[in-house]
Amino acid sequence: MTGGVQAVALAGPTATPLRVVGIAGPTASGKSALALAAAAHWPVEIISVDSALVYRGMDIGTAKPSAIERAAVPHHLIDLLEPTQAYSAAQFAADARRLIIEINARGRIALLVGGTMLYFKALIDGLDAMPAANADVRAALDARAALEGWPALHAELARIDPITAARLPPGDAQRIQRALEVFELTGRPLSGFHGQQRTPGLALPLLALEPMDRAWLHARIAQRFDAMLAAGLIDEVRALQARGDLSPETPAMRCVGYRQAWAALDAGDRTPLREQGIAATRQLAKRQLTWLRSMARTVVACDAPDAPTAGLAALRTLITAQTSA
After folding, report:
1. pTM for the structure as a whole
2. Alpha carbon 81 to chain centroid distance?
3. Measuring CA to CA, which residue among 142, 307, 320 is closest to residue 213?
Protein backbone atom coordinates (compact mmCIF):
# COMPACT_ATOMS: atom_id res chain seq x y z
CA MET A 1 0.00 0.00 0.00
CA THR A 2 1.38 3.38 -0.92
CA GLY A 3 0.24 6.51 0.85
CA GLY A 4 0.15 9.85 -0.92
CA VAL A 5 3.55 11.52 -1.06
CA GLN A 6 3.45 15.26 -0.60
CA ALA A 7 5.45 18.14 0.77
CA VAL A 8 4.93 18.45 4.49
CA ALA A 9 4.30 22.04 5.49
CA LEU A 10 3.87 24.11 8.59
CA ALA A 11 0.48 25.70 9.04
CA GLY A 12 0.01 29.15 7.58
CA PRO A 13 -0.16 30.92 4.24
CA THR A 14 3.64 31.16 3.98
CA ALA A 15 4.27 27.57 5.01
CA THR A 16 7.74 26.20 4.44
CA PRO A 17 7.92 22.63 3.08
CA LEU A 18 9.61 20.26 5.51
CA ARG A 19 11.99 17.46 4.60
CA VAL A 20 10.97 14.54 6.77
CA VAL A 21 10.29 10.82 6.28
CA GLY A 22 9.12 8.18 8.75
CA ILE A 23 10.50 4.64 8.94
CA ALA A 24 8.14 2.38 10.87
CA GLY A 25 7.80 -1.34 11.40
CA PRO A 26 7.55 -4.08 14.00
CA THR A 27 10.40 -4.79 16.37
CA ALA A 28 13.39 -6.55 14.76
CA SER A 29 12.34 -5.58 11.22
CA GLY A 30 15.55 -3.64 10.45
CA LYS A 31 14.42 -0.02 10.92
CA SER A 32 17.60 1.19 12.61
CA ALA A 33 19.84 -0.50 10.06
CA LEU A 34 17.96 1.17 7.21
CA ALA A 35 18.16 4.56 8.90
CA LEU A 36 21.91 4.21 9.42
CA ALA A 37 22.35 3.13 5.79
CA ALA A 38 20.38 6.19 4.69
CA ALA A 39 22.92 8.39 6.46
CA ALA A 40 25.52 7.25 3.93
CA HIS A 41 23.38 8.65 1.11
CA TRP A 42 21.72 11.77 2.51
CA PRO A 43 22.39 14.32 5.26
CA VAL A 44 20.00 12.98 7.89
CA GLU A 45 19.35 13.20 11.59
CA ILE A 46 17.31 10.51 13.33
CA ILE A 47 14.39 11.20 15.65
CA SER A 48 13.56 8.14 17.72
CA VAL A 49 9.89 7.12 17.72
CA ASP A 50 10.21 4.74 20.65
CA SER A 51 8.55 5.08 24.03
CA ALA A 52 11.34 3.15 25.79
CA LEU A 53 14.41 4.84 24.29
CA VAL A 54 13.56 8.08 26.11
CA TYR A 55 14.67 6.48 29.40
CA ARG A 56 18.18 6.53 30.79
CA GLY A 57 19.56 3.29 32.18
CA MET A 58 17.48 1.14 29.84
CA ASP A 59 19.95 0.30 27.09
CA ILE A 60 20.07 -3.46 26.54
CA GLY A 61 16.37 -4.29 26.65
CA THR A 62 15.52 -1.40 24.32
CA ALA A 63 18.25 -2.19 21.75
CA LYS A 64 19.35 1.41 22.13
CA PRO A 65 21.72 2.65 19.40
CA SER A 66 25.35 2.27 20.42
CA ALA A 67 27.63 5.18 21.23
CA ILE A 68 29.40 4.61 17.91
CA GLU A 69 26.12 4.74 15.96
CA ARG A 70 25.01 7.87 17.79
CA ALA A 71 28.35 9.52 17.11
CA ALA A 72 28.10 8.68 13.40
CA VAL A 73 24.54 10.03 12.97
CA PRO A 74 22.82 12.55 15.27
CA HIS A 75 20.00 10.89 17.23
CA HIS A 76 17.23 12.67 19.13
CA LEU A 77 14.71 11.76 21.85
CA ILE A 78 17.03 9.21 23.45
CA ASP A 79 18.03 9.26 27.14
CA LEU A 80 15.74 12.18 27.94
CA LEU A 81 14.30 11.04 31.25
CA GLU A 82 14.72 8.91 34.34
CA PRO A 83 12.54 5.77 34.31
CA THR A 84 10.45 7.29 37.10
CA GLN A 85 9.29 10.09 34.82
CA ALA A 86 6.37 10.12 32.40
CA TYR A 87 6.50 10.79 28.66
CA SER A 88 3.35 11.01 26.59
CA ALA A 89 2.34 10.82 22.94
CA ALA A 90 1.43 14.51 23.14
CA GLN A 91 4.90 15.39 24.41
CA PHE A 92 6.47 13.29 21.66
CA ALA A 93 4.42 15.04 18.97
CA ALA A 94 5.46 18.46 20.28
CA ASP A 95 9.12 17.46 20.56
CA ALA A 96 9.15 15.85 17.12
CA ARG A 97 7.63 18.88 15.40
CA ARG A 98 10.19 21.16 17.04
CA LEU A 99 13.08 18.86 16.11
CA ILE A 100 11.97 18.49 12.48
CA ILE A 101 12.08 22.27 12.07
CA GLU A 102 15.48 22.52 13.77
CA ILE A 103 16.96 19.69 11.69
CA ASN A 104 15.69 21.21 8.45
CA ALA A 105 17.12 24.58 9.49
CA ARG A 106 20.54 22.88 9.57
CA GLY A 107 19.99 21.80 5.97
CA ARG A 108 19.38 18.17 6.93
CA ILE A 109 16.57 15.64 6.53
CA ALA A 110 14.64 14.40 9.57
CA LEU A 111 14.14 10.63 9.72
CA LEU A 112 11.56 9.53 12.28
CA VAL A 113 12.44 5.94 13.10
CA GLY A 114 10.74 3.52 15.45
CA GLY A 115 7.91 1.22 16.34
CA THR A 116 5.75 3.14 18.82
CA MET A 117 2.80 3.50 16.49
CA LEU A 118 0.81 5.63 18.94
CA TYR A 119 3.56 8.25 18.63
CA PHE A 120 3.39 8.15 14.83
CA LYS A 121 -0.40 8.45 14.99
CA ALA A 122 -0.20 11.38 17.42
CA LEU A 123 2.12 13.23 15.05
CA ILE A 124 0.23 12.39 11.86
CA ASP A 125 -3.36 12.72 13.08
CA GLY A 126 -2.98 15.23 15.91
CA LEU A 127 -4.28 14.78 19.45
CA ASP A 128 -7.14 15.94 21.59
CA ALA A 129 -6.06 18.72 23.93
CA MET A 130 -5.70 17.18 27.38
CA PRO A 131 -3.76 18.05 30.53
CA ALA A 132 -0.14 17.00 30.87
CA ALA A 133 0.82 14.17 33.20
CA ASN A 134 0.94 15.06 36.88
CA ALA A 135 3.46 13.10 38.96
CA ASP A 136 1.66 13.68 42.27
CA VAL A 137 -1.71 12.48 40.97
CA ARG A 138 -0.10 9.42 39.38
CA ALA A 139 1.74 8.57 42.58
CA ALA A 140 -1.50 8.76 44.55
CA LEU A 141 -3.26 6.51 42.03
CA ASP A 142 -0.37 4.02 42.16
CA ALA A 143 -0.60 3.95 45.94
CA ARG A 144 -4.33 3.30 45.77
CA ALA A 145 -3.84 0.57 43.20
CA ALA A 146 -1.27 -1.13 45.42
CA LEU A 147 -3.89 -1.33 48.18
CA GLU A 148 -7.10 -1.85 46.21
CA GLY A 149 -5.97 -3.30 42.88
CA TRP A 150 -6.46 -1.89 39.38
CA PRO A 151 -9.83 -3.64 38.90
CA ALA A 152 -11.18 -1.55 41.78
CA LEU A 153 -9.93 1.63 40.11
CA HIS A 154 -11.44 0.40 36.84
CA ALA A 155 -14.78 0.10 38.64
CA GLU A 156 -14.40 3.69 39.82
CA LEU A 157 -13.64 4.77 36.25
CA ALA A 158 -16.80 3.00 35.09
CA ARG A 159 -18.80 5.26 37.41
CA ILE A 160 -17.26 8.54 36.24
CA ASP A 161 -16.45 7.70 32.61
CA PRO A 162 -18.33 4.61 31.44
CA ILE A 163 -17.40 5.21 27.80
CA THR A 164 -13.67 4.98 28.49
CA ALA A 165 -14.06 2.15 31.01
CA ALA A 166 -15.98 0.07 28.46
CA ARG A 167 -13.00 -0.05 26.12
CA LEU A 168 -10.37 -0.82 28.78
CA PRO A 169 -9.81 -4.19 30.46
CA PRO A 170 -9.69 -4.04 34.28
CA GLY A 171 -5.96 -4.77 34.28
CA ASP A 172 -4.89 -2.02 31.86
CA ALA A 173 -3.13 -0.04 34.58
CA GLN A 174 -1.52 2.59 32.37
CA ARG A 175 -4.71 3.67 30.60
CA ILE A 176 -6.91 3.41 33.67
CA GLN A 177 -4.44 5.61 35.50
CA ARG A 178 -4.43 8.18 32.70
CA ALA A 179 -8.23 8.33 32.53
CA LEU A 180 -8.53 8.83 36.30
CA GLU A 181 -5.71 11.37 36.21
CA VAL A 182 -7.50 13.44 33.56
CA PHE A 183 -10.70 13.41 35.61
CA GLU A 184 -8.83 14.37 38.78
CA LEU A 185 -7.11 17.30 37.05
CA THR A 186 -10.05 18.65 35.06
CA GLY A 187 -13.26 17.25 36.51
CA ARG A 188 -14.08 16.03 33.01
CA PRO A 189 -14.10 12.43 31.73
CA LEU A 190 -11.39 11.47 29.28
CA SER A 191 -14.04 10.60 26.69
CA GLY A 192 -15.26 14.21 26.84
CA PHE A 193 -12.02 15.43 25.29
CA HIS A 194 -12.23 13.29 22.16
CA GLY A 195 -12.72 15.30 18.99
CA GLN A 196 -12.28 18.67 20.68
CA GLN A 197 -9.48 21.20 20.17
CA ARG A 198 -7.20 18.80 18.36
CA THR A 199 -3.57 19.70 17.85
CA PRO A 200 -2.72 19.86 14.14
CA GLY A 201 -1.48 16.76 12.38
CA LEU A 202 1.49 16.43 10.03
CA ALA A 203 1.33 14.84 6.57
CA LEU A 204 4.25 12.45 7.05
CA PRO A 205 5.46 10.20 4.20
CA LEU A 206 5.82 6.83 5.90
CA LEU A 207 7.94 3.86 4.85
CA ALA A 208 6.93 0.62 6.57
CA LEU A 209 9.13 -2.47 6.88
CA GLU A 210 6.76 -5.44 7.01
CA PRO A 211 7.50 -9.17 6.65
CA MET A 212 5.91 -11.34 4.00
CA ASP A 213 6.52 -14.38 6.22
CA ARG A 214 5.73 -13.93 9.91
CA ALA A 215 8.03 -16.87 10.75
CA TRP A 216 11.00 -14.80 9.55
CA LEU A 217 10.13 -12.06 12.01
CA HIS A 218 9.62 -14.57 14.83
CA ALA A 219 13.10 -15.97 14.24
CA ARG A 220 14.57 -12.47 14.31
CA ILE A 221 12.74 -11.70 17.54
CA ALA A 222 14.13 -14.83 19.19
CA GLN A 223 17.67 -14.02 18.04
CA ARG A 224 17.33 -10.48 19.31
CA PHE A 225 16.03 -11.51 22.73
CA ASP A 226 18.80 -14.09 23.07
CA ALA A 227 21.33 -11.36 22.26
CA MET A 228 19.81 -9.13 24.96
CA LEU A 229 20.09 -11.91 27.52
CA ALA A 230 23.70 -12.54 26.53
CA ALA A 231 24.46 -8.82 26.77
CA GLY A 232 23.24 -8.66 30.37
CA LEU A 233 19.52 -7.84 30.37
CA ILE A 234 19.06 -9.50 33.77
CA ASP A 235 21.86 -7.43 35.29
CA GLU A 236 20.38 -4.26 33.77
CA VAL A 237 16.98 -4.95 35.34
CA ARG A 238 18.62 -5.90 38.64
CA ALA A 239 20.31 -2.48 38.67
CA LEU A 240 16.97 -0.81 37.98
CA GLN A 241 15.39 -2.71 40.88
CA ALA A 242 18.25 -1.65 43.14
CA ARG A 243 17.38 2.03 42.63
CA GLY A 244 14.46 1.59 44.98
CA ASP A 245 12.21 4.10 43.22
CA LEU A 246 10.75 1.79 40.58
CA SER A 247 8.14 -0.95 40.66
CA PRO A 248 6.54 -3.37 38.18
CA GLU A 249 3.74 -0.81 37.77
CA THR A 250 6.06 2.03 36.74
CA PRO A 251 5.28 2.66 33.04
CA ALA A 252 8.94 2.28 32.03
CA MET A 253 9.10 -1.13 33.71
CA ARG A 254 6.07 -2.35 31.80
CA CYS A 255 8.11 -2.34 28.59
CA VAL A 256 8.45 -5.73 26.91
CA GLY A 257 11.47 -7.57 28.23
CA TYR A 258 11.76 -5.48 31.37
CA ARG A 259 8.41 -6.67 32.74
CA GLN A 260 9.38 -10.32 32.22
CA ALA A 261 12.91 -9.92 33.60
CA TRP A 262 11.60 -8.10 36.69
CA ALA A 263 9.12 -10.92 37.34
CA ALA A 264 11.86 -13.54 36.91
CA LEU A 265 14.07 -11.77 39.45
CA ASP A 266 11.19 -11.43 41.90
CA ALA A 267 10.38 -15.13 41.54
CA GLY A 268 14.01 -16.19 41.75
CA ASP A 269 13.52 -18.32 38.66
CA ARG A 270 14.87 -17.35 35.26
CA THR A 271 13.73 -20.56 33.57
CA PRO A 272 10.60 -19.15 31.88
CA LEU A 273 12.16 -15.76 31.06
CA ARG A 274 13.32 -16.53 27.54
CA GLU A 275 10.01 -18.09 26.47
CA GLN A 276 7.94 -15.35 28.10
CA GLY A 277 10.10 -12.55 26.72
CA ILE A 278 9.96 -13.88 23.16
CA ALA A 279 6.20 -14.46 23.38
CA ALA A 280 5.60 -10.93 24.67
CA THR A 281 7.78 -9.47 21.91
CA ARG A 282 5.83 -11.43 19.29
CA GLN A 283 2.60 -9.98 20.66
CA LEU A 284 4.11 -6.50 20.49
CA ALA A 285 5.08 -7.06 16.85
CA LYS A 286 1.55 -8.25 16.08
CA ARG A 287 0.09 -5.07 17.57
CA GLN A 288 2.57 -2.93 15.65
CA LEU A 289 1.58 -4.57 12.36
CA THR A 290 -2.10 -4.09 13.16
CA TRP A 291 -1.49 -0.36 13.69
CA LEU A 292 0.45 -0.14 10.43
CA ARG A 293 -2.34 -1.68 8.40
CA SER A 294 -4.53 1.30 9.29
CA MET A 295 -1.94 3.88 8.19
CA ALA A 296 -1.09 5.27 4.75
CA ARG A 297 2.39 4.01 3.95
CA THR A 298 4.84 2.70 1.39
CA VAL A 299 5.61 -0.94 2.21
CA VAL A 300 8.95 -2.67 1.78
CA ALA A 301 9.17 -6.41 2.51
CA CYS A 302 11.79 -6.55 5.23
CA ASP A 303 12.36 -10.29 4.72
CA ALA A 304 13.00 -10.03 0.97
CA PRO A 305 16.56 -10.73 -0.19
CA ASP A 306 16.82 -7.22 -1.63
CA ALA A 307 15.26 -5.49 1.40
CA PRO A 308 18.20 -3.13 2.09
CA THR A 309 18.34 -1.99 -1.54
CA ALA A 310 14.56 -1.74 -1.82
CA GLY A 311 14.37 0.25 1.40
CA LEU A 312 16.91 2.80 0.20
CA ALA A 313 15.17 3.06 -3.18
CA ALA A 314 11.84 3.75 -1.47
CA LEU A 315 13.45 6.37 0.76
CA ARG A 316 14.99 8.00 -2.29
CA THR A 317 11.56 8.28 -3.89
CA LEU A 318 10.03 9.86 -0.80
CA ILE A 319 12.91 12.26 -0.25
CA THR A 320 13.07 13.26 -3.91
CA ALA A 321 9.36 13.98 -3.95
CA GLN A 322 9.77 16.41 -1.08
CA THR A 323 12.86 18.05 -2.52
CA SER A 324 11.10 18.73 -5.83
CA ALA A 325 7.84 19.88 -4.24
Report:
1. 0.81
2. 15
3. 307
In total, the chain counts a number of residues equal to 325
Determine how many CB atoms are found less than 10 A away from the CB of residue 55: 26
Give pLDDT tens digits along the chain (325 positions): 433 333 344 433 345 678 999 999 999 999 999 999 999 999 999 999 999 999 999 999 999 999 999 999 999 999 999 999 988 888 899 999 999 999 999 999 999 999 999 999 999 998 777 787 888 889 889 889 999 999 999 999 999 999 999 999 998 999 999 999 999 888 889 988 876 657 788 999 999 999 999 999 999 999 999 999 999 999 999 999 999 999 988 889 999 999 999 999 999 999 999 999 999 999 999 999 999 999 999 999 999 999 999 999 999 999 999 876 5
CA distance 233 to 272: 14
Q: Rounded to 5 degrees, what angle do the CA atoms 256, 172, 263 make?
A: 40
Per DSSP, helices labelled H in the chain are 31-38, 67-72, 89-105, 117-125, 135-148, 150-160, 162-166, 173-186, 214-231, 233-242, 258-267, 273-293, 307-323
